[in-house]
Amino acid sequence: MASVSAEHVFDIPSSIDPLRLFGQYDQNVTALESLVPVVVRLDGSRVLVSGEQAAVARAGRALDQMIVAAGAGSVLTPDDVALAVRQADDGARVLPPTIHTTHRGREIRPRTRGQSALVEAIDRATLTFGIGPAGTGKTFLAVAMAVRAMRARTVSRIVLSRPAVEAGEKLGFLPGDLREKVDPFLRPLYDALRELLDENVVQRQLERETIEVAPIAYMRGRTLSDAFVILDEAQNATHEQLKMFLTRLGNGSKMVVNGDITQIDLPRGVRSGLLEAPRLFGAIPGIEIAYLDETDVVRHPLVSEIVRAYARYTDEPHP
Questions:
Q1: Three-point CA angle 69, 73, 74, nearest 5°
Q2: Which residues of the chain have pLDDT under 70?
Q3: For residue 225, how many other CB atoms are within 10 A of its CB?
Q4: Cβ-contact 206, 216 below 8 angstroms
Q5: CA 283/CA 281 separation, integer angstroms
């Protein structure tokens, strides 16, 4: 059957700044054309979309979301266009709300269904487990939610932690004092902070200890009240370490525990505490578990394929 060509005209409200909607040099128009096989033309306050009927309808659903987001004040990027297309394909009617706007003006929002589920779980629950493979944005979104909470003054500080365990390395073989030994393990948390906040702000908050970054061993004996607490790479926490960490939760606090159960670097015979979390805590009110998978990977597209390849290899019998 021959394809049916179509053209649809979208009127852009005069209250919307075209730069917010289309981006510099109309980069969002180019992004939409690269994602959906349509031709998009701008004619004053109108957008003309032409192509096969199904493609025009698909682009139109995404454009509807983009117009609503720009009308609400968002400055859209090609990433937002890709998200709008994905959301439209899933039947969603609006883009997810912005969590945080960085010091460079970049709007941070969930970009996949799994990321949206994680953010919604963090909003609802006191303790949230985010379980999924590398590249799904677990750490970045959790830190963004923490920064939002501190800016809204629902907490007075942020505590970020990780186990000091990595593939094939032992702290004793690394140069320097204890702080110099553990800092490389905490680097991803520092990176997330500096992506979200100005470098000077991060440094000031670290000096005032309203933001604290420390290995999990430093948490013993403490009560973490009025804080947004994040444990990253929790698959490398033992049963005892995870129990110790979870019981640090104090009044007025929120806790997020993230990990990838396919990348456990603990010594052979030592079981990850994160593996037990769904069975232990899945039915407790106030605790939620959000699962992400390879469809939620937001790094290079090859990362999704790498995750799938390892999953297939794990499932296959080997001699």
A1: 55
A2: 1-4, 165-182, 299-301, 303-304, 307, 313-319
A3: 15
A4: no
A5: 6
CA dist., res. 80 & res. 30, Å (int): 13
pTM for the predicted model, two decimal places: 0.80
- Closest alpha carbon to 130 in 109, 148, 115, 143: 115
CB crowding 211-222: b at 16 or more within 10 Å, else e: bbbbbbeebeee
- Residues across the chain: 319
Question: Can you tell me the distance from the alpha carbon of 145 to that of 122, in angstroms, rounded to the nearest whole number?
Answer: 8
Q: Please report, as a single letter, which amino acid is at residue 160.
A: L
Q: Which long-range contacts (CB under 8 A, 24 or more apart) does 54-60 make?
A: 56/6, 56/7, 56/8, 57/6, 57/8, 58/85, 58/88, 58/89, 59/32, 59/85, 60/8, 60/10
In the numeric block, the tokens 């800092």 are attached to 183
The pair of structure tokens assigned to 190 is: 């520092």
